[in-house]
Design a protein that fits this description.
Distance between the termini: 92 Å
Largest sheet: 2 strands, antiparallel
Strand content: under 5%
Helix content: 40-55%
Number of helices: 10
Number of strands: 4
Order of helices and strands: EEHHHHHHHHEEHH
Structural class: mainly alpha
């Protein structure tokens, strides 16, 4: 007699290398199968965990590509939702590093949809809260798009909306990171001071002779 009962495998006994039928499983990096993760879950994982060190099963480069592809799909589905989620996780301090949020924001700032790009740049001061964050964001953004009018406006707002005291603290404590400095941003984006304090701070950052500063912009 053929024992058909032995050919019926319970889900709990299915090997890892085989998917559970009808459960929406996909191949994973460990060579087995796992539950399918959508773009929004992948976005959250990246924002909190990043991918710079990889995992036991996949290297940092491949893991980052997987995350970038998922984030781009999420941006294409709902760019405003992506930006809102970036801001939410970044400002709540839920991640050990802010770099994933800055990188995801740069991807959104380089999106095809103009409204998504505008939303990402509008959120810049919330995600890039200190100059180190701003320099990281610019480093991420550079290979993705040019520094046009929208980027210039966003960075200008980052400087101009701070009080002279807060800006002095930020510019002296965080002078440069990742090959970027305040002077680089001032020159590249043609930023102009709007207060006497910014006059002095920008001049110091540019390391230029007095009188070489651009004229002050009207408040």
């Amino acid at each position: 007699m053929q024992n058909y009962q032995n050919l019926i495998t319970k889900p709990s006994a299915i090997p890892q290398a085989q998917p559970v039928p009808g459960r929406g499983m996909t191949a994973n990096n460990a060579g087995g199968y796992g539950w399918t993760v959508d773009e929004w879950t992948q976005l959250d994982r990246f924002l909190v965990l990043g991918s710079a060190t990889g995992t036991f099963y996949v290297g940092a480069k491949d893991l980052t590509k997987q995350n970038v592809d998922a984030i781009k799909r999420a941006i294409a589905l709902d760019g405003a939702r992506v930006v809102a989620r970036i801001v939410e996780i970044s400002t709540a301090g839920r991640a050990p590093s802010n770099d994933p949020a800055l990188f995801a924001l740069a991807l959104a700032a380089a999106a095809d949809e103009p409204a998504t790009r505008a939303a990402a740049l509008e959120a810049l001061p919330q995600v890039a809260r200190i100059p180190t964050h701003l320099f990281h964001f610019m480093a991420y953004l550079k290979p993705l798009r040019g520094f046009g009018r929208q980027v210039r406006r966003a960075v200008k707002r980052w400087y101009h909306e701070k009080s002279d005291l807060d800006l002095a603290y930020a510019m002296t404590k965080y002078q440069s990171r990742d090959g970027w400095s305040h002077g680089d941003l001032i020159r590249l984006l043609h930023l102009k001071p709007v207060t006497d304090g910014q006059d002095l701070l920008f001049e110091h950052a540019l390391e230029r002779e007095a009188g070489a500063m651009p004229p002050r912009e009207a408040a």
